[in-house]
Amino acid sequence: MDYAIKENNILLTIPATNAGKFRFKKRKSRLDFGETFSTRKCPFDEQTYLEWQISYDIPIKDIEKGKKGTKLTSKHFVGSNGKEKYPYELSEIFFKAMELKLITEKEVKDLLNEISRYKSFIDEKDITIEHHSKITINGINFEETSIKLPTLFMIETLDNTQIEVSIEKQQYASGVQPMVYFCIPLKAFKNSSVLYGKSSISGDKLDYVINKNNVLNLVFMMKVFGMASKRHNHDIVKILETLLEIIDR
Predict the structure, then answer these.
(1) Average pLDDT for 210-238
(2) Nearest-angstrom CA–CA distance, 158 and 71
(3) 132 near 148, Cβ under 8 Å?
(4) How confident is the model over 95-120, as a mean pLDDT?
């Protein structure tokens, strides 16, 4: 993902292919699970949307190793895991919106005060288990159950985008973790007509514009991250404090 400033708007440019934290999916309704498709073989259509597993920070060590880059390296903060970090991706875009006055300093301070007072967190939702029946597969007996991990859809965002929080089991540790995704339907991209009805080829990109009409999406994402868990809340509070300190310099 790259971004540039054009006419006091933030232009995000995203490759039209599945890579890393970007997944193009299709679904019939906004509450469907969504299925990934091959962007090289299957045409983009009205059911297409981008699922972006957006980040908000990056460890300083990753920057020093050249793994990733961020433009906000003048001040760091200590994350909930004790690591020194820089603001990254969502935080960079949010800061750029502050510089462009799309989000005022007062609004950021109000947001910081609101998030710092959150007491309820998404990862505290109950995980339920449904017991079904005993089944036999290839002569081996099993007890079949279903573990329900909640997914929350915030559909009251702007320009038909939505924010999704999926509670998932941690891969290398016990417990669960909330994963936050920003989902952008094809029609919300400025140049969606270029790919509509066609599959993508190497070099194809989609442009998403953040302006005064939809900048609240960034605020919504900060709020959702801030209530995802106590760990996320700590980090978002520190990030907003850091961004305010940078903007005041």
Answers:
(1) 97
(2) 27
(3) no
(4) 97
Q: What tokens appear for 88 in the block?
A: 């990254």
Three-class secondary structure of residue 206 per DSSP: strand
Residue type at 26? Answer: K
Residue keyed to tokens 């710092």: 116
CA–CA distance, 112 with 225 (Å, rounded to integer)? 12
CB 229 within 8 A of CB 123: yes
Ramachandran class of 133: left when φ > 0, alpha when ψ lies in -120 to 50, beta otherwise: beta
- Maximum C-alpha span of the chain: 70
161 compared with 132, residue with greater pLDDT: 161
Distance between CA 215 and CA 96 in Å, rounded? 11
- Angstrom distance (rounded) from CA 125 to CA 148: 11
**Residues counted in the chain:** 249
Q: Among the listed ranges 16-20, 61-65, 104-108, 208-212, which one has the minimum average pLDDT value?
A: 61-65
Residue appearing with tokens 């007996």: 141
For the four alpha carbons of 74, 76, 242 and 101, in that order, the dihedral sign comes to positive
Residues contacting residue 37 through CB under 8 Å, at least 6 positions apart? 24, 25, 26, 48
31 φ, ψ to 5°? -105, 5
CA distance 2 to 207: 10
* Amino acid identity at 155: I
> Which strands form 2-6's sheet, in the order they lie side by side?
2-6, 9-15, 205-210
